[in-house]
Amino acid sequence: MFVRVNATNGVPVYDQIARQVKFAVADGALTPGDLIPSVRELSKELAVNPNTVARAYRELQNDEIVESARGVGLAVRQGAAKTCRAHRSEWVRRRMRLALEEAFDAGLSSEQVEKLVGEELRKLIKARPSELNSGDES
Amino acid sequence: MFVRVNATNGVPVYDQIARQVKFAVADGALTPGDLIPSVRELSKELAVNPNTVARAYRELQNDEIVESARGVGLAVRQGAAKTCRAHRSEWVRRRMRLALEEAFDAGLSSEQVEKLVGEELRKLIKARPSELNSGDES
Amino acid sequence: MFVRVNATNGVPVYDQIARQVKFAVADGALTPGDLIPSVRELSKELAVNPNTVARAYRELQNDEIVESARGVGLAVRQGAAKTCRAHRSEWVRRRMRLALEEAFDAGLSSEQVEKLVGEELRKLIKARPSELNSGDES
Amino acid sequence: MFVRVNATNGVPVYDQIARQVKFAVADGALTPGDLIPSVRELSKELAVNPNTVARAYRELQNDEIVESARGVGLAVRQGAAKTCRAHRSEWVRRRMRLALEEAFDAGLSSEQVEKLVGEELRKLIKARPSELNSGDES
DNA sequence: GTGGTCTAGACCACC
DNA sequence: GTGGTCTAGACCACG
After folding, report:
1. Which residue has its C-alpha nearest to nucleotide E15's C1'?
2. Which residues of chain B have pLDDT under 50?
3. Rounded distance, CA C101 to CA D96, Å?
């Protein structure tokens, strides 16, 4: 299954779920017409309350990623992949920009920031050598 | 004044205050013996609840950045600059690592992440040309 | 075929089916004695659960629009046209009144409502020039 | 108070609340900077569960009508009036268009629809003579 | 079986 | 005091 939640990192569980579904769509792991796991199923699998999953799914409907197929379940909408890639891109960019701004606000020079980013990036690439290439950004 | 807070960005106000004081010390804008603004003064200036400022100052005392000069106020401690630079460095690194990890978790390839970071970094450097060089990192 | 359903617009599918059969009778597209499509036939054509069609047909029997012709199917009853026209009229009126009430509840003035209704009405008439005149209202 | 809910008309309570707050902003009854009633307060007044109010308020935040002032409450955002008038207008229009489309789909001629709308409109205006003029539509 | 709404109540962080 | 998150469980309409 494509969803994994961490209940202890402060990020709301419903948010983690919604985001991971979006990323799965962005990657093509879910394609238009696919049904996403039922609320009850996923809530059992993740051992969280069904309402929490329902809340994540509600957000996916608000964002027009998914639509309700009456009495059947929730299906990925046409064109969702594009939306999801855009969301993902935007989201990652925003997080990155925030981190960089914080570094500058902390009083570091651009050289210091550049050096620090490079170091952390290299560490992470070394730690995750097996990254599969995924959907390109819009 | 060296403190500016944003009440609507989700970051706790007391946290913003404490951090900015630390950064001011790291930069040498505050040096050992300097008094930091009184709780009432700063709370008035920032239009913030005095309890919030008090909480920030409590954290600064816990972290041994400032100490109470009885009857006078709170003064920056000897050796605080070193501590603050270490805090700053550690904090910025952690934030950066988190942002990068999130980017990978979102399914981006290392090339995509590298490109994106570079873009955002260049944007920010252009937007803030007047960065003063500040204390080097431990 | 005179029935078309939209599974994603929130209106119950069985309701859409029942109503459209009634409207067909009101218009004279179905006349007393005509057999309506079998449950299995219609369910296959609409790609809908047979239970859903069955439920629609049950309502039509309750409303005395159709009756079971044993071993043959369901047939439009004598006098059904009059009933259907009445249902149609009542239903349309109720929907219209609700929409208008909502507009007032939203805080619009009667002038604003009048203007808005006129605009939408003109748009629709332009978009559907080929309306056939149908049964007059009771 | 500017909110009144009807728990028996099928429309979700949280939806009624969110919409009525929007309409209050559209009308200028709430202006930017105003705090909307606290979750607990409104839930007590309407005798509904606090979570239900919270859900309505969450939607208002998603729609950028309102923003959280940390520890203080939810405040109407700058520019919300414009957004709210647009939402209101769009919403009323959509409801009206649906009702009119339904009338045509039911097989009525444009003359019949026009007549029917006129009748219902006159009835309602007579029943609500004291409509105050409110914010114009964008 | 599916999702949707609502209630009741706990716990948290923040001001 | 404020909102935010999560749990637990009930009830409903739909297929």
Report:
1. D71
2. 131, 133-135, 138
3. 10
More confident residue, A133 or D83: D83
Residue with tokens 């980017």: B103
pLDDT, tens digit (0-9, with 9 covering 90-100), for A105-127: 888 999 999 999 999 999 999 98
Say whether residue C12 is in contact with chain A using an 8 A CB cutoff: yes
Q: Which nucleotide is nearest to A57 (CA to C1')?
A: E3
Is any Cβ of chain C less than 8 angstroms from the Cβ of A7? Answer: no
For the stretch C52-81, pLDDT in tens is 999 999 999 999 999 999 889 999 999 999
Residue-wise pLDDT for D70-126, tens only, equals 889 999 999 999 999 999 999 999 999 989 988 998 889 999 999 999 999 999 999
Task: Give, as ranges, the nucleotides of chain F with any atom within 7 Å of a protein CB.
Answer: 1-9, 13-15
Q: C92 and D106 in contact by Cβ < 8 A?
A: yes
Which of D91, D99, D131 is the closest to C96 by Cβ? D99
Please state, rounded to an integer, the average pLDDT across all residues of chain B. 89
A67 in contact with C, Cβ within 8 Å = yes
Sort out which chain B residues have CB atoms less than 8 A from A109's CB and list them. 131-134
Amino acid at A41: E
Single-letter residue type at B57: Y
C1' (F12) to CA (C13) span, angstroms = 17
Give the pLDDT band (50/70/90) at residue D138. very low
Low-confidence spans in chain C with pLDDT less than 50: 131, 133-135, 138
Query: Which residue in B90, B121, B130 has the most chain A C-beta atoms within 10 A of its own C-beta, making it the best mutation to test that interface?
Result: B121
Determine whether the interchain pair B117/A117 forms a contact, defined as Cβ–Cβ distance below 8 Å: yes
**Is pLDDT of A1 > 80?**
no
Question: CA C26 → C1' F8, Å?
Answer: 50
Closest C1' nucleotide to A43's CA:
F7
Q: Which two tokens stand for residue D135?
A: 């914010």
Q: Is the CB of A55 under 7 A from strand E?
A: no
pLDDT tens readout for residues B53-93: 999 999 999 999 999 998 899 999 999 999 999 999 989 99
A106/B127 Cα distance (integer angstroms): 16
Contact yes or no for A66/A75 (Cβ under 8 A): yes
Q: What is the dihedral of CA A112, A113, A119, A125, to 10 degrees?
A: -170
Quickly count: other Cβ atoms within 10 Å of residue C136's Cβ: 10
Question: Which bin fits D36, alpha (ψ -120 to 50), beta or left (φ > 0)?
Answer: beta
Q: What is the pLDDT of residue B127?
A: 86
End-to-end CA distance of chain B: 26
Whether A131 has its CB under 8 Å from any CB of chain B: the answer is: yes
d(CA A33, CA B53): 53
- Contacts of B70-79 with C-beta under 8 Å, sequence gap 24+, read B72/B35, B73/B35, B73/B36, B73/B38, B74/B35, B74/B36, B75/B32, B75/B33, B75/B34, B75/B35, B75/B36, B76/B25, B76/B30, B76/B31, B76/B32, B76/B33, B76/B34, B76/B36, B77/B32, B78/B32, B79/B32
